[in-house]
Specification:
By secondary structure, this protein is of the alpha/beta class. It is 29% helix and 16% strand. It has helices spanning 3-14, 48-60, 137-145, 158-167, 176-182, 209-218, 252-258, 319-329, 335-340, 384-394, 423-435, 444-448, 457-475, 526-540, 546-550, 566-576, 628-655; strands at 39-44, 66-69, 97-101, 114-118, 170-172, 198-200, 234-237, 267-270, 273-279, 291-296, 306-316, 332-333, 347-348, 360-368, 410-415, 480-485, 491-496, 504-506, 517-519, 554-558, 611-613. Strands 1, 2, 8, 9, 10, 11 and 21 form a 7-stranded mixed β-sheet that branches. Strand 12 (332-333), helix 9 (335-340) and strand 13 form a beta-alpha-beta unit. Helix 1 (3-14) packs across helix 7 and helix 11 (423-435) runs antiparallel to helix 13 (457-475). The two termini are 39 Å apart. Substrate binds at residue 581. This is Glucose-methanol-choline oxidoreductase N-terminal domain-containing protein.
């Protein structure tokens, strides 16, 4: 199906409560529309991962039936900056999403994290900033290293996941004139170009976009041709997740549903329904596959709940917040918490809802004492004539102008050893934390590692492994520790890529069906403050470069010239840190069970039958990337694992 037709189909579905594409399938909206005999595979969550897996399974097993249950509805998702917006800070008109606030973080002066999560078909791929980068090879090698001692034969190092990065996206190079105008570089060999999830480099940049890039090169940062091939330290051009012709957002709801479901009568999507829990017969987690208990979103009557049978398995793809919530409501999680919640215990799995991580950071800002005259600039959008012309350009074929540009597609990734010669002091602090002998069952152990007070001994063991792994990443001169992105204006972000602080996601005991309680515990581990300080000092250097300071008379305004000492800058960090760059993960981590893990390397939940998790919650640690591309790759690899395992079972069953 052509991309323009796919987008038109998705728009048609968004405008109807019971619409069909080509008359071949109908979006399901109630229990009576479902197969009475159940489904082979039932997927909780119609987001980035869930729809990818559903697409692959329904294609591989045309005689098997796949059901996806999604809390939200089908909606057209505009890009971050599409007409009629005239400001990139305008977040109106985007598809449905959860807007959540965390508990206060004491180490950051009791500030709270604000995080947005997708609540529509397509999930967060339908709401995010469209920045479509991959992590460093060292991130995924670290994932694989953390699996030692667990069970499962699947590998998660760079060489094992790289083919799925290639498989998961179709990249289109920009036209020659555009590439020459902006000095774009890329390497088509790192993309597979076989999937209706699109990425491209936009045909537009604001007039001052080159300033940060020029400053960073002046600071000695390597200008890398391509950063999607595993080697990421340096200055990178990053594709954005939009179609190269229409410049409309490309997301899982389009690419892995609307583009394929018309020819898949075995692929069903139930919208506006919430998965409440998984049920095991006799509460025996070995009796799988489980049933999935479901309710209409706007009906909280217990009589409205119904069960769907999964003949093969249930796959949880509800994200870093939704997946641990479903597991906890199902009686799978930390027994002490489940006891407080009055939820009957099915399986004590302490890692469920633990190991919570997100990227965080601050900003460096400056002013020009002699304002330069760049054009075009975002302020031009306030001119009605310019804005109207921009809208016309966006609707051309191919699309042109400022509306083709998302939040950013240019950034640096810098390893810790490249920022300061004193990085070894910080590494010594991590080693000291590791080498102090504290018994895993000693109640002082959690406090020593700055973990939540209810941390289980297995989780402490797992955190020690993570601590050692992150130590090695920070010591690696090719593994990024800092990210900073730029598109326009007079500020850049300083983003901590590998935090040591760990938070929790727990059910809301007042109403377990509402979004969970998020405890970020940002900067609870003092190493994170030390890393923020190094990153901030490094990034301030760009304001002193010839490009900004000498040529354009830039003057730093944040943190500000008055702040010099470590104490002053740490105070600044505690006051202004953004606790979430919308990259929550790791709450059902792929780790050995003896180290607090929730899923094995084949993503099956430890200790239960017929239940798997495929979404960002399975990440053991954050990658040095925005999460969308990695979630797609994990889902592609997961689908391959599931297809391979069930193909063998179906083949064996047919030969009996």
């Amino acid at each position: 199906m052509r991309p323009s037709v796919v987008i038109a189909c998705f728009l048609g579905l968004a405008g109807s409560t019971n619409a069909a594409i080509h008359g071949r399938y109908v979006v399901k909206r109630g229990v009576l529309e479902l197969r009475a005999e159940g489904y082979d595979f039932v997927i909780a969550g119609g987001g980035t991962a869930g729809l990818t897996v559903a697409d692959r399974l329904s294609e591989a097993f045309p005689k098997k039936n796949v059901l996806v249950v999604e809390f939200g509805d089908i909606e057209y998702a505009p890009g971050v900056f599409d007409p009629p917006k005239t400001s990139m800070s305008d977040t109106s008109g985007m598809s449905s999403r959860w807007t959540l606030n965390s508990l206060p973080s004491p180490e950051l002066n009791n500030s709270t994290a604000f995080v947005i999560v997708g609540k529509a078909v397509g999930g967060s791929s339908a709401t995010n900033g469209m920045f479509f980068d991959r992590g460093s090879r060292h991130d995924y090698d670290a994932w694989d290293k953390l699996q030692e001692g667990g069970y499962g034969d699947e590998r998660w190092d760079w060489d094992s996941i790289y083919p799925y990065f290639k498989k998961s996206v179709t990249f289109t190079p920009p036209p020659t004139a555009v590439a020459k105008e902006f000095n774009y570089t890329w390497d088509t060999t790192v993309f597979g170009n076989t999937t209706p999830i699109y990425a491209s480099l936009p045909p537009f940049q604001w007039g001052d976009h080159y300033l940060a890039r020029k400053s960073w090169v002046e600071m000695g940062i390597y200008n890398r041709k391509e950063c999607a091939g595993g080697d990421k330290e340096g200055l990178c051009w990053i594709p954005i997740s939009e179609h190269p012709v229409t410049a409309r957002r490309s997301h899982a709801g389009i690419g892995h549903y609307a583009a394929v479901a018309a020819t898949r009568p075995n692929y069903h999507l139930l919208v506006k329904h919430q998965v409440t829990r998984v049920l095991y017969r006799g509460a025996n987690p070995k009796s799988g596959p489980p049933l999935l208990e479901i309710k209409p979103v706007n009906d909280d009557q217990s009589s409205s709940r119904f069960n769907v049978t999964a003949k093969a398995e249930v796959i949880l793809s509800a994200g870093a917040f939704g997946t641990p919530s479903i597991l906890q409501r199902s009686g799978i999680g930390p027994w002490a918490f489940l006891q407080r919640a009055n939820i009957p215990l099915v399986l004590d799995l302490p890692g469920v809802g633990s190991n919570f991580q997100d990227h965080s950071g601050q900003r460096v800002e400056w002013n020009y004492t002699v304002p330069p005259n760049f054009t075009p600039m975002p302020s031009d959008m306030l001119n009605a004539t310019y804005a109207a012309e921009a809208a016309i350009a966006f609707n051309q074929t191919p699309a042109q102008g400022p509306y083709t540009l998302a939040m950013s597609n240019s950034a640096i990734w810098v390893p810790l050893p490249n920022m300061t010669i004193s990085y070894t002091i910080l590494l010594d602090q991590i080693r000291s934390m590791l080498n102090t002998t504290i018994g895993l069952k000693d109640p002082k152990a959690a406090a020593h590692y700055h973990l939540p007070t209810d941390t289980d001994a297995t989780q402490i063991s797992g955190f020690r492994s993570q601590l050692s792994t992150i130590h090695n990443l920070l010591a690696n001169p090719h593994a990024p520790s800092l990210e900073s992105a730029f598109t326009t204006g007079t500020s850049v972000a300083s983003v901590l890529l590998h935090p040591l602080s760990r938070g929790t996601v727990r059910l809301n005991l007042t109403d377990p069906l509402q979004p969970p309680i998020l405890d970020y515990r940002s900067a609870s581990n003092p190493i994170d403050i030390a890393l923020h300080l190094i990153h901030l000092r490094y990034l301030r250097r760009m304001v002193q470069t010839t490009t900004l300071h000498d040529d354009l008379h830039a003057v730093e305004t944040l943190p500000g010239l008055a702040l010099h000492s470590d104490a002053e800058l740490i105070g600044f960090i505690r006051n202004v840190t953004t606790q979430s760059y919308m990259h929550p993960c790791c709450t059902a981590a792929m780790l050995p069970r003896v180290e607090g893990g929730v899923v094995a390397t084949d993503l099956r939940v430890h200790g239960v039958a017929g239940l798997r998790v495929v979404d960002a919650s399975v990440f053991p640690i954050l990658p040095s990337a925005h999460l969308s591309a990695t979630v797609y790759a994990v889902a592609e690899k997961a689908a391959d694992i599931i297809i391979r395992q069930w193909s063998e079972k179906y083949k064996a069953a047919s030969s009996d």
